[in-house]
Amino acid sequence: MTGWFSFLHGEATAGDVLALARVEQVLRDAGSAYDVVWSPGFRADGTHFADVDPAAYSRLVFVCGPVHGAQVEELHRRFAHCVRVAVGVSVVDAGSPAVTGFHRVLARDGAGEGPGLDLAARAPALPAVPVVGVVLTHGQHEYGGRRRHEEVAAVLTRWLAGRDCARLALETRLDAHDWRLCGTPAQLEAVLSRLDLVVTDRLHGLVLALRAGVPALAVDPVEGGAKVTAQARACGWPALVPAERLTKSSAEVSAEVSAEGVLERWWDWCLADGRAEAARIGAGFRAAESVPEGVPDAADGLVAALREASEAATGR
Where residue 252 falls among pLDDT bands split at 50, 70, 90? Predict the structure, then answer.
């Protein structure tokens, strides 16, 4: 079983891998044994062309994508003794060696017939995974030597890469001209409200997630704690990890839970009990109620402060 996901200089798209799953399902139901060849750049622990002895196989199946180019033509040369079939593919040039080298081509389009349904559409059902917004900052240079932003981001992103979740990089910065960014707070809130979890080292990543009723796994990237820690306390939100907890050496935490262990504990809490707690806090925010423990926001004292400052400045 091969496809563009097999080539070192190919690529593995979600559609390709789902198409493969559909073909695997059909072959399993037919009782046919098979191996799948993966690109070492995508699945280092899989079977690669370098591991394959062509003589051990009698048939080759090429799944999905365009049947075109030198890499596909090389398959015909290397597996010349095999029966070769392409399935769910696009035929760009019906006369090219990449196409004519197959004994059968079951095309989805371009073969002179009506288009067929892409194989990915009928792939087996997939397990549900959480959708996680990631809101990080590499700035805040005002904290000087206490900054641990780069180290925190490196630990978080490396850890997140190993989690089974859909990651969505987000920015709290608004831009009316860059299509990749939200132009209004309402647009950002619309995205946040559809997430299962936000992972952030930003104050507003924490606050806006909770405002949308979504749990936030927050990390304060400033050694000793700064505004993220203060805001988590003001919101009554427990899922906070200090920068030091992620940036200590392994020797320093030998007697403690690892950084990954701490993150995983709060991850699990956020996706369980944290959902109801975030929903409760968010409802309070939207109702303009005071936050837990009666901590007001600064605007509550603004009018009085303006009046007092004016009186002090004018002497009356």
Answer: low
Q: Which candidate, 278, 184, 270, places its Cα nearest to that of 219? A: 270
Task: Give one DSSP letter per residue of 70-82, joined into a string.
Answer: HHHHHHHHHTTTS
CA-wise closest residue to 238 among 203, 269, 261: 269
CA dihedral 239, 245, 246, 252 (to 10 degrees): -160
Residue count of the chain? 316
The C-alpha torsion from 62 through 67 and 73 to 74, rounded to 10°, is -40
Q: How confident is the model over 149-178, as pLDDT tens digits? A: 889 999 999 999 999 999 999 999 999 999
pTM of the model: 0.85
The identity of residue 74, as a single letter, is E
Measuring CA to CA, how many Å separate 10 from each of 14, 20, 85, 189? 13, 15, 19, 37
Question: For residue 3, how many C-alpha atoms fall within 13 Å in the half-sphere facing its CB?
Answer: 27
Instruction: Answer yes or no: is pLDDT of 251 > 70.
Output: no
Q: Is 44 helix (H, G, I), strand (E, B) or coil?
A: coil
Q: Which pLDDT value is given to residue 294? A: 57
| Backbone phi, psi, residue 79, to 5° | -115, 40
